[in-house]
Amino acid sequence: MDKALRLLGKLKNEVVGNEELARAAWRAAVGDRIEAHARFRELVRDRIVVEVDDRVWQSQMHTLEKQILAKLTRLLGKPVARQIEYRIAIPKPQPQMDVAQDFRLAPKDVEAGKIGDPGLRRMYLKSKRRASGQ
User: Quick check: 41 and 51 in contact, CB under 8 A?
Assistant: First the structure.
């Protein structure tokens, strides 16, 4: 992996830019655990912009900045950025679950109240209404 990234870094091809190289090398430079909390976002001039989960990750990653830049340079064979900017990611809204209310049909008689299953209770009450002509 390191050799492939180094070869890509030496290419003078316009198809593969510095941002693509940095994006490809980010996970190898920081590892899977850190990458889960600090995601590469973009390369702006000589600055890598990274989204982190919260302020704790922001301060922790700031202390590792020189090590990460050195590893990126070593992996790619050339310096891609001079600094890293850590931004706190805006939390994405989670889909809301439709919480079913624990409802119980108000039984009209005592026998329906003894039926524990709500579906069977409804069927019983429905058939009882049909039989009585309501």
Answer: yes
- Indicate the angle between helix axes 65-76 and 55-63, nearest 10 degrees: 60
Total structural domains in the chain?
2
108 and 83: one domain?
no
Between CA 67 and CA 30 the distance in angstroms is 9
Find the CATH number of the domain harbouring 38: 3.30.300
Render pLDDT for 3-19 as a digit per residue (tens, 0 to 9): 666 565 555 555 678 88
DSSP state of 89: P
The reported pTM is 0.59
Is 72 part of any domain?
Answer: yes
Contact 77, 6 (CB under 8 A): yes
- Do residues 77 and 114 share a domain? no
89 class by beta-carbon count within 10 Å (0-12 exposed, 13-18 middle, 19+ buried): middle
